[in-house]
Automatic annotation (TrEMBL):
CDD domains per the UniProt record, alphabetical: F-box_AtTIR1-like
BP GO annotations: SCF-dependent proteasomal ubiquitin-dependent protein catabolic process
SUPFAM superfamilies given in the database record: F-box domain, RNI-like
Organism encoding this protein: Nicotiana attenuata (Coyote tobacco)
GO CC term (a single one): SCF ubiquitin ligase complex
The protein's name: Ein3-binding f-box protein 2
Lineage top rank: taxon: Eukaryota
Start and end residues of each F-box domain: 52-93
Length: 637
């Protein structure tokens, strides 16, 4: 080592001495006694593979015997990497003794060097028997895709590739996608999100090489047109899932090709594509061999004709989602239901469709005998009449979700619950038409099957309404009343008393007027089964509630009393309770919880996995002690 690092002396360096001009260490030779001029060898004229044209170098590289050798060659330079990535899998000259093990390389975008890609860095993993890679943001470059293609080609190539975003300077183009096509003919799933530089040429290569493609997801790809989609349709007959979102140049021609060629297609999602109209949708859905079971159409320029086709030909469709269809009228939904073709439909979601009216809902209920899940969002013309008609007609209905349907009132909800014999879940969100009025409920039958009731952010829903609904729901397991500022103990207590013991999850967050009386009643009547209780924002809840919870809720595993009037005494009482499964405890905003609670929290922490002490009066040093003792628990402070 002294020879390498600390060489000293009065003599000059000579050719063949300790340091050669090529910076390769050579053993020291005897120094000559006669000085001669310092000579530097000119190696610029030495033979080099770099002087070969790409065609010759391509022929050499494709004859490398194995994956390890190809990966090593890819580390030489970007030029070699890109040439290797252009070699189609079928063009590789394979030897019988080929080594199947290969390294995964990545070329540094700022130099000609190459570095190894770690598995964690690029989310490489074995998934269902094939490799999965996800490239995002700054790492999404052609060089990266080329490295992936070369590094994985000898191991069967990728089965799934997701590209999310693109490098703003050296973004992914058709060159990178072509490299994947050449090196990974076994690709089954391809997802391209927000990659504006990838166009039809890249999809041509995928279609030419990746005949096993099963799922294709194109989102915000403005350079891809019908030509690329037609190529996929004609060459990838195994396609089972297609998603096209915000692709302004894909229209009817591409969808028609999919309908003709992809007879195994099961899932279809088309969103915000202005060139897609009735011709494309109807052609795809009416193809004789269609196996579609899941369809989502959003923001398209389709009319009643497309819905009529769905109603007539959608015999296999089980999940249907229709959103923001501005040109579809009441007639479209009416025809879709009366066509009697949606016999297999199980789940229907309608969002922001002005054509969805009471008449259409009734027709859908009658024409879909197996409908179990109904979700209606922001449909301003759906009223009580349509909801009740649907409940009566759809005898298999198990779940109803209504969001921002402002013509729905208390009367419609009560009658729908009473008429749905199999209803298991009812959810109301931001329905502003509900008013807290006293109605006659003696003629309504209770819904014995209802297990989950969620009424959130409906300001008109008060104690009177809640008491009436409670009489119709005797066997609830889940109750969510978050954001109902108008309810009081007088409205909730009758519901708790009318329910048979068995509530498992209760969310009362931001119900500002509830007091200890509700929490105590809940703990005493349903404590044996209660697993989750959220009282966040119930400022009138005090230590008395925690004491009852501690004594009566042995199965409780998630408790949130944030911003309640809880003190150190309440925490101490909770720590002495019967809870053996408490895993998550939130005391955020409980200003009267201080350092005195640390011993109690340590006792509770034997099973805790999550503890929220934000905006409490617990000091940083006390939190540090808790962190040391409760090493399994995630503590927020």
């Amino acid at each position: 080592m002294p020879t390498l690092v600390n060489y000293s002396g009065d003599d000059e360096f000579y050719s063949g001495g300790p340091f050669c001009s090529a910076e390769v260490y050579c053993p020291p030779r005897k120094r000559v006694r006669i000085s001669s001029p310092f000579v530097v060898e000119d190696r610029s004229k030495d033979p080099s593979l770099e002087i070969l044209p790409d065609e010759c170098l391509f022929e050499i590289l494709r004859r490398l015997p194995g994956g390890r050798e190809r990966s090593a060659a890819a580390c030489v330079s970007k030029r070699w990497l890109m040439l290797l990535s252009s070699v189609r899998n079928s063009e590789i000259c394979r030897s019988k003794s080929q080594n199947n093990l290969s390294s995964v390389e990545e070329v540094n975008g700022d130099s000609n060097d190459t570095t190894m890609i770690s598995k964690d860095e690029d989310l490489e993993k074995e998934c269902d028997g094939y490799l999965t890679r996800c490239v995002e943001g700054k790492k999404a470059t052609d060089i990266r895709l080329a490295a992936i293609a070369v590094g994985t080609s000898s191991r069967g190539g990728l089965g799934k590739l997701s590209v999310r975003g693109s490098n703003s300077v050296r973004g992914i183009t058709n060159v990178g996608l072509s490299a994947i096509a050449h090196g990974c003919p076994s690709l089954r799933v391809l997802s391209l999100w927000n990659v504006p530089s990838i166009g039809d040429e890249g999809l041509f290569e995928i279609a030419r090489e990746c005949h096993s493609l099963e799922k294709l997801d194109l989102s915000q790809c403005p350079s891809i047109s019908n030509k690329g989609l037609v190529a996929i349709a004609e060459n990838c007959s195994s396609l089972t899932s297609l998603t096209i979102e915000s692709c302004p140049n894909i229209g009817n021609e591409g969808l028609q090709a999919i309908g003709r060629c992809c007879t195994k297609l099961q899932s279809l999602t088309i969103k915000d594509c202005p060139l897609v109209g009735d011709q494309g949708v109807a052609s795809l859905l009416s193809s004789g061999a269609t196996m579609l079971t899941k369809v989502k159409l959003q923001g398209l320029n389709i009319t009643d004709f497309s819905l009529a086709v769905i109603g007539h030909y959608g015999k296999m469709i089980a999940n249907l989602n229709l959103s923001s269809l501005r040109n579809v009228s009441q007639k479209g939904f009416w025809v879709m239901g009366n066509a009697q073709g949606l016999q297999s439909l199980v789940s229907l979601t309608i969002t922001l469709c002005r054509g969805a009216t009471d008449v259409g809902l009734e027709a859908v209920g009658k024409g879909c005998p197996n409908l179990k899940h109904m979700c209606i969002r922001k449909c301003c013309f759906v009223s009580d009449g349509g909801l009740v008609a649907l409940a009566k007609a759809a005898g298999s209905l198990e779940s109803v979700h209504l969001e921002e349907c402002n013509r729905i009132t208390q009367t419609g909800i009560l009658n729908a619950v009473s008429n749905c014999r199999k209803l298991k879940s009812l959810s109301l969100v931001k329905c502003m038409g509900i008013k807290d009025l006293a109605l006659q409920t003696s003629l309504l039958s209770p819904c014995e099957s209802l297990r989950s009731l969620s009424i959130r952010c409906c300001p008109g829903f008060g104690s009177t309404s809640l008491a009436m609904v409670g009489k119709l729901c005797p066997k609830l397991h889940q109750l969510d009343l978050s954001g109902l500022c108008g309810i009081t103990d007088a409205g909730l207590l009758p519901l708790l008393e009318s329910c048979e013991p068995g509530l498992v999850k209760v969310n009362l967050s931001d119900c500002l007027n509830l007091t200890d009386q509700v929490a105590i009643s809940l703990a005493r009547q349903h404590g044996e089964t209660l697993e989750l209780l959220n009282l966040d924002g119930c400022r009138k809840i005090t230590d008395a509630s925690l004491m009852e919870i501690a004594d009566n809720c042995p199965l409780l595993n998630d408790l949130d009393v944030s911003t309640c009037a809880i003190t150190d005494s309440g925490v101490a009482g909770l720590s002495c309770g019967v809870q053996v499964n408490l895993q998550v405890l939130s005391l955020s905003g409980c200003l009267m919880v201080s350092n005195k609670s640390v011993p109690s929290l340590k006792k509770l922490g034997e099973n805790l996995l999550g503890l929220n002490l934000q905006r409490c009066s617990v000091s940083c040093s006390a939190v540090e002690l808790l962190v040391e003792d409760l090493w399994r628990c995630d503590i927020l402070s």
